[in-house]
Amino acid sequence: MQYLDLGARVLVGVIFATALISKLGAGNFRAFTVSTGALLPYRFYRHRRALAIGYVVCEILIVVMLTVPTASPWGLALAAATLLLLAAFIARSMRSGDAVACRCFGGASRTPLGRPHLARNVALAALAAVAAAAAWPSGAGSELSLAPAVPVVGAALLLGVLVVRLDDLVVLLGPTARTASSARSSHAG
């Protein structure tokens, strides 16, 4: 279970740290604030900036707690709760038919929130919750052997990059890309 905790801490930490860093630019934070407002019920819209700031503070807390072994179960639990809350907002957006752009990793993405984002957040929340529960009785930070830790950290970093680039992967592997590829190959023959 130590390696599950380590992998989850690295994966979730990379994702939240990347999300945090990508929002720090003025234009990116503004785009995130607009996106946050679009996810909220109308009566809360005027509080979108305060909620966006609160969310960034939450990201900071998660990243810091994941770097402190004795606090990592709390960081994983906060990450799981945050990801489930985001999943609920994504599901609400999908039900209402709103095409809110995913600004999770800055302002560059134009991809509307959808099933891939919902699945990503639920899967990450489940992983964070399981890892938090596994680390809870004794806390994290017990002795780890370097040999198994290195591939766990490497895999978590690679998976973190793939999760961060989810929008690009969906576009690359989505039905439009496959249809275009099929059309090119049928014209070639």
From TrEMBL:
TM region(s), chain numbering: 6-29, 50-68, 74-91, 118-138, 144-164
Signal peptide annotation: none
Database matches in Pfam families: MauE
Main location group: membrane
Alphabetized UniProt keyword annotations: Membrane, Transmembrane, Transmembrane helix
Ranges for domain Methylamine utilisation protein MauE: 1-133
Domain of life: Bacteria
Membrane protein topology class: Multi-pass membrane protein
Compartment list: Membrane
Protein's recorded name: Methylamine utilisation protein MauE domain-containing protein
Species of origin: Streptomyces johnsoniae
